[in-house]
Amino acid sequence: MKNLSLLFIGLLLIGVSLTATGQRTRTFRGGLIGGINFSQIDGDGILGYNKLGLVGGVHLRARYRKKMDLCLDMLYDQQGSSPFTEFTKYNSPYQIILDYISFPVYLKYKDWLIEYKKSIYDYYRIEFDAGLAYSRAFRLQGPSGVSRYYSKNNFSFLLGAHYKFNAGLGIGFRYQRAFLPVHTFADQEIVVWVIPYKISFFTTYTF
User: Which of 104, 74, 98 is nearest to 151 (CA)?
Assistant: First the structure.
C-alpha cells in the first residue's frame, strides 16, 4: 500500500511538472477532490444509504483522445453501513465501518467545449466517468468482531458525472459498487454476499 501511494504521488508530481501554463490543451493535469459518501452494504440487514463518511484525495488525468482522458485517483474513502432508526431488522443497533485507501482508474468522456479565449485554457463543461477501483481497508469495525471476517480488499466498478464551473472548479457525483463480496455467510442454507456500495457528492479542483 505504501509503495502504491508513493508511486501515485510521484506520477502526480510528474504530471503537474509537465503541465505548461498558457497552453490551449494539456496532456497531464493534477487536482484535488473532497466530498461526502452516502453508503450502505447489501447483506448486513441494514437498509438505506445512512452511513455518512468523508472522501477526499488527489487526482491525475492524462489526455487520451480529443474528448477522453485516462484518470487515476488516490482517495481516503469512508464507507460502511448504519441504521436509520435505533434498531435493525435483527433488533440489534450497530454500524459497520469500512475505511479505505482507494485507487479508482477510469475513462472520462468530455463534452460542451469552452474555448481558450473564454478561459485560461480549453476545457469541457460536462464530464462522464466509467471505470474500476481497488480499495484497501485500513480500518474494519463492526458488531461482536464480525468485521474480522471481512476482506481488506475491495474491487468495484464506478459511474459518475461532473459539471465544471470554470477550468479549475467543478462538482460531481459518483456511484460505486463492489463486484466481489467482502464477506459471505450462510443464512438458512442461502449464501449471502456482503457487498459495499455508495453514492458520493464532491467538489473538484484541477490545476
Answer: 98
